[in-house]
Design brief:
This protein is of the alpha/beta class and 480 residues long. The protein folds into 3 domains: 55 residues, no CATH class; 204 residues, 2-Layer Sandwich (Endonuclease, Chain A); 162 residues, 2-Layer Sandwich (Endonuclease, Chain A), CATH 3.30.870.10. 45% of the residues lie in helices and 18% in strands. The longest helix has 25 residues.
Length: 480
């Protein structure tokens, strides 16, 4: 027995040290590296188990080896052409357009996503507007429907969407659905079977049998994308579930934002979906019918930026950073999780210290305890630099929106945290349009009225227990 315990102790020590070495080699982010090493040192058993199930996957490059196809290559070619055109164009020579030029060039480089012109878009405030518009467009679908969500619930709105998809499939419309296997782990076999029986093609993203006990859970598809007939698309913060309609007893009113796009930018979202479909099925849908000839919709400039473990650059994080650092007048942000990495933290504080009107709306209700207290740990230093932080009081705020000056608006799936920037698959729409900026501004102004602005002097008087929770949240937030 003594010999067995000695061998077991040796093996545990060996594996713990090995994991420590792997953590050091794998993680490029110093904050994440230090956090994992600290947890492993203080709580060797817990840290060992946590890293096995939640840590960076050493098979990451193999799992997410980029699968190139005709659409991806053609978009990259277009992006390269546009990048050269933007460099030579006199359109962006005026100072007021310099921000647009910098961001357009950045996304052309880091996402290989062309800037599209023939578009019109519509901001959808909260679930009621989003689902009303979505159900109408799904009902009118003629050829194909592609849907991709992090969370789909087997509840009232979930079944309404399911029944619509079944109806369209029975009418002969091609319907494909991707759901994240961890985010939608309670969906149920009956729900999925009823879709498949009607002819809907359904795939789960990175399937896991026990969502809480799998290393692959660390890479989740957090995207929310719907593409209808190749010319209408939806994306933003709203999943499919009754809570997004304010029907949760815990959260009450649910404040969120989505965007509907018609036009050329839909091609980019279609490309993302088809690449994700290929990852799930190895079925390469090389058919121009998914990229139909489009009528004239308008002249809104829109770029779609996507990021994830399979991309070379942290595209959305870099886009946020660029917008914040080059803002002239204001940076207004809504995020459910305010856990900036060091670069974003410095960018926000520097902007505020430079006289930029930096405002951030965060929840006053916790949906994830570690993230909630991790967010609170950054409040003091941001307030000290002059950032205005508002706690939303009407219910729970889940929107992921960014407004810079009156020129650029972002609506998407990415939170202001480590998971969105480095680990999850995300997608954001960047709209270079004054009307959309003004529309988003109205939402912000209304939200500010439903918020309690945090006072720096009062916040500094918070108790020791809250500071302790913040410290724990800050330590754990980079890895959870």
């Amino acid at each position: 027995m003594f010999q067995f315990r000695s061998i077991l102790s040796f093996l545990f020590t060996f594996y713990t040290i090995s994991i420590g070495v792997i953590i050091f080699i794998e993680n490029e982010d110093p904050q994440t590296t230090i956090t994992w090493l600290l947890v492993l040192f203080i709580f060797p058993v817990v840290g060992f188990v946590l890293y096995l199930f939640l840590g960076q996957n050493i098979r990451k490059k193999k799992i997410f080896q980029k699968e190139e196809n005709i659409r991806t290559k053609s978009l990259e070619d277009i992006a390269e052409i546009q990048l050269n055109a933007v460099k030579e164009s006199k359109i962006f020579s005026e100072e007021k357009h310099s921000l647009k030029k910098k961001l357009i060039s950045l996304i052309l480089n880091n996402s290989k996503s062309p800037v599209t012109i023939n578009n019109k878009s519509k901001i959808l405030t909260n679930g009621k507007q989003k689902f009303k518009e979505l159900k109408k467009d799904l009902s009118n679908a003629k050829k194909h429907i592609h849907i991709e969500y992090f969370i789909i619930k087997n509840d009232k709105i979930g079944n309404e969407i399911k029944n619509l998809l079944i109806k369209k499939a029975e009418e002969g419309v091609e319907v494909r659905l991707i759901y994240d296997s961890a985010g939608s782990w309670r969906l149920g076999k009956k729900y999925i079977k009823s879709l498949k029986d009607a002819g809907v093609k359904v795939e789960s993203y990175l399937p896991v049998f026990l969502p809480g006990l799998s290393r692959d859970i660390n890479y989740r598809n957090h995207r929310k994308i719907v593409i209808i007939d190749g010319n209408i698309a939806f994306t933003g913060g709203i999943n499919i579930g009754d809570e997004y309609l304010g029907k949760s007893k815990k959260f009450g009113f649910w404040r969120d934002t989505h965007i509907k796009i018609e036009g050329e930018a839909v091609y980019a979202l279609q490309n993302i979906f088809l690449n994700d479909w290929y990852f799930c099925t190895k079925e390469n849908l090389e058919d121009l019918k998914y990229f139909p000839k489009l009528k004239y919709y308008g002249e809104q400039l829109i770029q779609i930026s996507s990021s994830g473990p399979d991309t070379e650059w942290e595209s959305i994080m870099q886009s946020y950073f660029s917008l914040i650092t080059y803002a002239n007048d204001r940076v207004w942000i809504t995020t459910p999780y305010l856990i900036p990495n060091e670069s974003m933290n410095v960018a926000l504080r520097t902007a505020a210290l430079s006289g930029i009107d930096v405002r951030i709306i965060i929840p006053d209700i916790a949906d994830h305890v570690v993230a909630f207290w991790g967010s609170r740990s950054y409040v003091s230093e941001l307030l000290k630099a002059g950032v205005k932080i508002y706690r939303y009081q009407k219910g729970f705020v889940h929107a992921k929106t960014l407004l810079v000056d009156d020129m650029v608006a972002s609506v998407g799936t990415a939170n202001l945290d480590n998971r969105s920037f480095h680990i999850n698959f995300e997608v954001n729409a960047f709209v270079y349009d004054k009307d959309i900026a003004n529309r988003l501004e109205k939402d912000f102004v209304k939200d500010f009225k439903n918020c309690d602005r945090i006072n720096y002097e009062e916040y500094e008087q918070r108790g020791a227990l809250q500071k302790f929770k913040e410290a724990i949240g800050r330590i754990l937030s980079p890895i959870l």
